[in-house]
Every structure is written in structure tokens, then in C-alpha cells.
Design goal:
heterodimer; A: 337 residues; mainly alpha; 73% helix; B: 336 residues; two-stranded antiparallel sheet; 74% helix; globular
Chain lengths: 337, 336
């Protein structure tokens, strides 16, 4: 033992602290994120850390992150939700179609107050998510197939609602939600922080959260321990749907319009954030903090690429690579322990 | 009992057992569905569906989908999935056409290369992506969904960057043979599809490799313990899927004599639908190729019928999603 008695040498103590930090799952992620910020700020010649840009990046990450929290819950139980983008798109269009003052686009004839639109988006999201959950858990078909089918259905349904055109002229009261800030922090970001904090609290301090991990780790054991696996699996998708609807609210309020491109790629982004954040696709492992860092990493990468003028397709190359590398690293980590 | 009656009784018994074997065959229900569906569509479109011209059209369009579906079938039987087919096909198509085009500024190498070289490059590039999928799934243990999803993103991005998203045309006339040519009155795509389907059927049902595919899908651990090299089997399945995506892209390019970022969109959804409708189990290890072929045609008839009835893209998308879900639900209920 280095250093005897109570006079442990300072060097070994420092090393011990370093070792304990690096063993912590999220430390590696944090280092990656900080490194990425550094690299990106150099590559974009400082643009990426300009205040306006950071604010923009955080807002976009907040929208993505809200959906990612829902996806995290789903993936923790060993499932997956590929329909999140479709749910967000459909909710955004549906809610907008109810409150818009654009002539001929409002599906109830008269523009309703903004909060009705918000409520519609949240309710529709929850409803669609619940359908996902019910069919997956009661009928038993794999989540991948159900959510894939739901995604196709919603893409088509969204097209029906929008007729292929964008909807704008939404009530001004939404701008406070979308562009306002409290003490310099955009409200959208504050909402995301609240959602993330709630998610963290639920997963770490409630029975429900513990059950989520249990079902993900070993559904059979969970069932044998008395957890109602079927109900839990249904609720999980409702949560994902609800948060998809919330993401729709946030993005619609932000850009004050919606179209068929709204929230495109949300499912890939949320899955990527969750994978990068260290949640194992097999379920049962990972935590929300990692997901938040994952969301930020993807956000920083996306943002920097936009600044450098990369097209969405090129961004897709980077995203695809990130997902694969992240999952591979997770696999290595799991099998080294 | 007289001899005559004995013989009669025997032949009745043989006929009954043959009949019951046919009925009990997995794909019997599917064939009935197909015939019923075609009849319904025919009535709805007042005969347009079953006109000779239209039927040929349906079969040719189904063939492109069919190539990818056969490849997808191999993958899904191993309990995997390949959502990259559309991207791989797109990449192959853009790469090939940008080498074959006679538009000098669009051509990657300045001048059109020989047709068969171009076709080979298309097939090889698609095969390459498929092999990459295979390595990721079999060696790096990356879940098939994630691996192929990532490749889908990557191939689409790569395809875009090849020619910055422009549409490419002015392709060599010989290419049209693959998409529009005929051999003795039968369109080439249909012949190719039949050939490939037959080969796939023989491989899956009459070779050790085919049996291994089912074994790996049913229970990879047991397969491993029985001495099957699971890595090789998985690798091959994804490689096949990639290669067939390449075939689809060659035929499609030959058909529309151009390529763009819209080429082969939705190929993954279509092939996955056809595979599930065709009775292949999501959990792997079960299902047969005849079902997949029927599934391809069913989806083709539905798509065609909807187009004839004037349904817009929205409705087509909704019904595609519903078809996937209903097909898998039926499969699940049947297996319970």
C-alpha cells in the first residue's frame, strides 16, 4: 500500500480520485462532449460558441432532448419507438390546424385559443403512444414493427391533415413559449430541463422507475417479482408519445409554423442521443444524465455541421456513424466488465 | 370388397391427403388472400386491374420490390432486419449512373464507362455495403436495427455527396434492357425475378446454408453449439440483402433511365412489408420464400389498385403502415 498509515501520499490519492471518476459511466461522455465543443469551436472559428448560436443550439437540443427522454424510458425496458418523429409531426400539424388563423387551413373553422392547440398536441401524442403501447404489450407484436407501422401511418395521416402545405399564422401567445426567456435562458430549454429532471427523479427515486430497470434487465424475473410488466410496457409508450407531443409543442411555438418537414428525423436523433448517452439497447442499463449529455453531443455536432454548411444528407453520414460507434463502444464496455 | 372399390378408396385417400397438404401449407391462405384481393381490386377498378397491360405493369414493378424482399427475407429469417436497403440501392444507383452517363460534367470520371462495367460496379458497391452490415451485426454485435439504420443514413449521405443531389440521365441504351427489355414477350425484370426467386427457394430449402439460416434465426445459441458458424451465416445473409438491393437498383435504373435522390425511396418499408405479409416471423426461424413472393405481389396489387383508384400518397402511406401491423398481428395470433 502506497503511503502508510494516515499519511497517504497525495499522488496516490489523486490517482484514486481519477480512477473513481473515470469509472463513472458519464465521466467519459462528459469528456467527449467538452472535447467536441473545443474541436468544433476551432473548426468553426469561434462561431459555434457565440452566444446567439449557443442559444439556438440549446433550443434545438431541447426539442430533441424532450423526445429523447421518452425514448430513454422505452429503450430502458428493452423496447424501441421508431414512431416518435411521426407522432411529433402529426401532433404539430393537428394542433396547428386547430389554432391557425390562415384562411381555409383551420380544420374547425375558427381559430381556437393557443392553449387548446397545445392540449390537442399533448393529448394526441399521449393517445398515439398509448396505442403503440397497447398493441405491443397486449397483442405481443415486437415494438419495432408496431412503431414502424405507426410511423408510416402517421406520415400519411399528417399529409392528409396538411395537404402537403405548411400551416402558419398561429396565435401570438405562442411566441412567449417559443421565443421568450427567463433570465436569459429560453423557456424551451427550461421546459426541457424540467422534463429531464422529472425523468431523472422518476427513474431513480420511484418504484415505477425501479420497475422500468427491472423489466429491461429481465422481464421474466420482473414479472415473477410481481411487477405488472404488461401495464408498464403500455405506459412507457404513452410517456414516449406524450413527450413526442411536447416536442411538437416546443418546435411549433418556436418556429411559429409547421409543415411536413417538422420534426423529421426525430426518431433517429432520439435513438442516437439515447445510444450515445450510454443506455444499452438490450435495456436495463443507463441513466438520464447520460442521455442529456448524449443529446448535447448530437446537438453540438449537428450545429457545427450546419455552420460549416453541411447538407442534411452529410449530417446523416455523421449521425449514422455516431450511432454505430456509440453502440459498439457500449458493447465493448458491457463485455469488458 | 372388390378390387375396383379398393383402388378407388386408395385414390380418394391420396387425393384427400394431397388436398389437405395443400391447404395446410403456410402459403395457401396467402394465395387465397391474393386471389381474393385481386378480385376485389378488379371489381373496384372496373376491370382495369386485371387487364393484361396492367398486370404486366404490376409484375414488373413488383419485381424491383421483390429483389429487395428476397434479400430481406434472408435477413429476417435470421431474426434480423435490414432498413438500409433503400439507401444502399440509392447509392448503387447514383454511383453507377454517374459513371455511365454521357453528360460529361456530371460524369465522375469524365466519360461514360462500358455498360457492363457500370452494372458490375453497381452490384459490387451494393454487395459491399451489405457485407459491411454483415460484419457489424455478426462481429461487432451491433443490433441489426441500429447497424442498418446507421448505414441507411450513411449511404444516403454518401449518395448525395457523389453528385450533389442532381438527377442523372442520358444513360447508355443497353441499360434499358434490364428494366424494359423483353425475352420472348416476357419483360426482363420478371424473368430475373423468377430466376432469383427460384434460386433463393432452392438455397433456403435444399442446401445446408439455407438450413443454417433457419437455425440461426430460430436459436443462435443452439445453432452455434451444433457447429454452425453463426458469424458466417449472418454475414452472408446481409451480404445477400445488399447484393439484391443492387440488382433492384440496376433494374430500376434501366426502367426509368435516370437516377435521383428519390430513387428507390421506401424500398426498405416495402420489402419489410412484403416479408411480413408473406408470413416470415419477426422472431426469425420460420417462414418460406413462396410466402414472400406472394406477399410481394399482394403489396403490388394493393399499391397498383390504389393508384388506379386515385388514392394520394397519404392514403398509400397509411395503408402501408396498417398492412405491416395487421400482417404481423395475424402472424402472431397464428403462432399462439
Amino acid at each position: 500500500m502506497q503511503g502508510t498509515g494516515k499519511y497517504l501520499s497525495r499522488r496516490s490519492k489523486a490517482r484514486e480520485i481519477l480512477q473513481r471518476i473515470s469509472r463513472h459511466e458519464n465521466a467519459v461522455l462528459l469528456v467527449v462532449m467538452i472535447g467536441l465543443i473545443g474541436v468544433m469551436s476551432v473548426v468553426t472559428q469561434g462561431v459555434s460558441i457565440a452566444r446567439a448560436n449557443v442559444s439556438n443550439m440549446l433550443v434545438q437540443s431541447a426539442v430533441r432532448g424532450t423526445a429523447a427522454i421518452g425514448q430513454a424510458f422505452v429503450i430502458l425496458t428493452g423496447g424501441i419507438d421508431v414512431s416518435v418523429g411521426g407522432i411529433g409531426l402529426f401532433c404539430s400539424l393537428l394542433g396547428s390546424a386547430v389554432i391557425t388563423s390562415q384562411t381555409g387551413r383551420n380544420i374547425v373553422g375558427e381559430p381556437l385559443p393557443a392553449f387548446v392547440g397545445v392540449a390537442v398536441m399533448l393529448l394526441a401524442g399521449t393517445g398515439l403512444g398509448t396505442v403503440n403501447g397497447l398493441v405491443t404489450s397486449r397483442v405481443g407484436i415486437p415494438a419495432l414493427v408496431m412503431t414502424l407501422g405507426m410511423w408510416e401511418i402517421l406520415k400519411g395521416a399528417a399529409f392528409q391533415v396538411s395537404g402537403g402545405m405548411s400551416i402558419s399564422r398561429l396565435p401570438d401567445s405562442l411566441t412567449y413559449l417559443g421565443k421568450g426567456d427567463i433570465g436569459g435562458v429560453p423557456i424551451v430549454v427550461i421546459i426541457f430541463i424540467a422534463v429531464a429532471a422529472t425523468g431523472y427523479f422518476v427513474l431513480t427515486h420511484t418504484t415505477f422507475g425501479k420497475n422500468v430497470y427491472a423489466v429491461g434487465g429481465n422481464p421474466m424475473s420482473a414479472w415473477l417479482s410481481g411487477i405488472n410488466v404488461r401495464n408498464l410496457n403500455t405506459v412507457i409508450y404513452s410517456i414516449s408519445g406524450l413527450l413526442g407531443g411536447l416536442a411538437a409543442v416546443l418546435i411549433t411555438a418556436r418556429i411559429m409554423s409547421t409543415s411536413n418537414q417538422t420534426l423529421a428525423g426525430l426518431e433517429i436523433d432520439s435513438i442516437a442521443s439515447v445510444c450515445v448517452g450510454g443506455i444499452s439497447l438490450a435495456g436495463g442499463r443507463g441513466n438520464i444524465i447520460g442521455v442529456i449529455i448524449g443529446v448535447l453531443i448530437i446537438g453540438i455536432a449537428n450545429n457545427a455541421m450546419s455552420i460549416m454548411g453541411a447538407t442534411p444528407d452529410t449530417q446523416g453520414i455523421v449521425k449514422g456513424t455516431i450511432i454505430i460507434v456509440a453502440v459498439f463502444i457500449d458493447y465493448l464496455r458491457r463485455h469488458k466488465a | 370388397m372388390t378390387v375396383d372399390t379398393q383402388e378407388q378408396a386408395n385414390s380418394i385417400r391420396k387425393a384427400r391427403s394431397l388436398a389437405s397438404q395443400v391447404v395446410r401449407h403456410e402459403s395457401f391462405v396467402l394465395s387465397v388472400v391474393l386471389i381474393g384481393l385481386t378480385s376485389v381490386m378488379s371489381v373496384l377498378t372496373q376491370g382495369a386491374t386485371t387487364s393484361r397491360v396492367n398486370l404486366l405493369n404490376v409484375l414488373v414493378q413488383s419485381s424491383v420490390r421483390g429483389f429487395a424482399s428476397i434479400g430481406q427475407a434472408f435477413v429476417v429469417i435470421t431474426a434480423g432486419i435490414d432498413v438500409s436497403v433503400g439507401g444502399v440501392g440509392l447509392f448503387s444507383s447514383i454511383l453507377g449512373t454517374s459513371l455511365l452517363t454521357s453528360i460529361v460534367d456530371r460524369n465522375l470520371v469524365g466519360g461514360p464507362i462500358p455498360l457492363m462495367v457500370g452494372v458490375t460496379i453497381m452490384l459490387v458497391s451494393a454487395l459491399g455495403w451489405g457485407m459491411f452490415n454483415g460484419v457489424m451485426v455478426s462481429r461487432a454485435y451491433i443490433p441489426p436495427l441500429i447497424a442498418t439504420l446507421g448505414i441507411w443514413q450513411i449511404t444516403r449521405g454518401a449518395a448525395f455527396n457523389l453528385v450533389k443531389g442532381v438527377t442523372i440521365h442520358k444513360l447508355p441504351d443497353g441499360l434499358a434492357f434490364f428494366g424494359q427489355g423483353e425475352i420472348g414477350d416476357i419483360p426482363v425484370p420478371i424473368i430475373l425475378f423468377i430466376v432469383i426467386a427460384v434460386i433463393a427457394y432452392l438455397v433456403l430449402n435444399h442446401t445446408r446454408f439455407g438450413r443454417n439460416i433457419y437455425a440461426v434465426g430460430g436459436n443462435p445459441a443452439s445453432a452455434w453449439l451444433s457447429g454452425i458458424n453463426v458469424h458466417h451465416v449472418l454475414f452472408a445473409a446481409y451480404a445477400i440483402s445488399g447484393l439484391l438491393a443492387g440488382v433492384a437498383s440496376v433494374v430500376w435504373a434501366g426502367r426509368i433511365m435516370s437516377s435521383s435522390m428519390d430513387s428507390l425511396t421506401g424500398l426498405e418499408i416495402d420489402s419489410i412489408s412484403a416479408v411480413f405479409v408473406g408470413g416470415i416471423s419477426v422472431s426469425g426461424g420460420k417462414g418460406n420464400l413462396i410466402g414472400v413472393v406472394i406477399g410481394v405481389i399482394i403489396i403490388g396489387i394493393i399499391n397498383n389498385g390504389m393508384s388506379l383508384l386515385g388514392a394520394n400518397t397519404a392514403v398509400q402511406g397509411i395503408s402501408k403502415g396498417l398492412i405491416i401491423i395487421i400482417a404481423v398481428v395475424i402472424d402472431y395470433l397464428r403462432r399462439r
